[in-house]
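RETRY 2/3 - previous attempt timed out on the joint model. Re-submitting the same 387-residue input unchanged.
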Amino acid sequence: MSDTSVLSPVAKTGTVANEDQIIDWLRQYIGDVLALPEDEIDIDASFQQLGLDSSAAVGMTGDLADWLGRDIDAAAAYDHPTIRGLAKALVS
Amino acid sequence: MTLSTPHTGASAEAIQHHYDVGNQFYALWLDPGMTYSSALWYYDSESLEAAQRNKQDWHLDRAGLDNAERLLDVGCGWGGLMRRALERKPDCHCTGLTLSEAQAAYINRLSAPNIEVRLESWADHQPDEPYDGIVSVGAFEHFARLDQSVADKIAGYRQFFEFCRRNLRAGGQLSLQTISYENASRSQFSQFFANDIFPESDLPHLAEIAEACRGIFEIVELRNDRHHYANTLRHWQKNLRAHKDEALALVGEAKYRDYEKYLALMVVAFHTGTMNLSRLALRRLPESTPFTSAR
Ligand SMILES: C[S@@+](CC[C@H](N)C(=O)[O-])C[C@H]1O[C@@H](n2cnc3c(N)ncnc32)[C@H](O)[C@@H]1O
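RETRY 2/3 succeeded.
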């Protein structure tokens, strides 16, 4: 688990989340990592455009997997390189 | 410790930084044969263990095991490939080189007949007799350093190929497996890899291997199998996660996180093609060249 405060109120494993909730989680997470206000985070911009490096991207994927309590491929954020795209892929 | 630092590549200290984290820790997530390199799948349904055996057999076949009496494994890790060689050909004599004390101790404890492990770099190895075949899997990655110029790096690789030619009988084959740069360059080599995981190491580009072996070995076969490495890493990730508590008890939180991150970054690198996994079968060229006319 990441030590970001956004995660603490959330169940650690087995969260059932819909696309919007995953979008919110990713927005908060990235806002936290990059110290940006959430409303400046475009959910259709690529993770790279947003400023995540590869370490941050695999960290995010791992923390998201922990939050959802399921496996997510380490390369998921490369196959689905935007917040919206990744959230969609994870619920489909 | 009396190991001398090889002319090129990572020092014994740097190798031990990585491999001496502990045999027990690696045993938690590698296959039972303790193979620490990409496997080879012929069918998706094959287990990691079966795919590691495929990989070992691929190299043993190309090194000419069936007709070999003496086989060298440069960078033998925990010795799995030599054990496989003896399963197939019990009278073959196998020599393995490693810079890791933990690996050498592990192999010695198994005291298998016909396996000799030496805590020695290839740069210092001087056998009494030539070998019939040489295999090197997942060690070439350590034969150059990031702080070398490209020319020095290739010269270092060339020394390795010269070592192999010197110690291989005429017509003998070398089977080599290494991670290579594909759609990336050394300047993009992540600082995390460079500092925390594989200190003092740099990867080759395929063209550098071809350049370094020119006139010494001919490339008989080449396979680029990055997806096989990505798959191997996914198995390791799964095993590591399944043994998380034991791993934490053995190495602590920070090391555990490092390995989790390293495995994930490697999956990404192979999946996206920044790195590749190259397997090469190389045949020793004759030393003589056509006579040139005196006139
Ligand atoms: C990733 S491990 C691979 C081990 C084994 N071949 C396998 O596939 O499981 C790399 C190995 O290369 C060895 N190594 C690195 N540099 C070496 C050198 N200059 N001479 C001999 N062995 C070396 C390390 O000690 C280690 O055993």
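The pocket of S-adenosylmethionine is lined by residues B 6, 9-10, 15, 19, 35-37, 74-77, 80, 97-100, 103, 121-122, 137-139, 142 (CB under 6 Å). Closing ticket.
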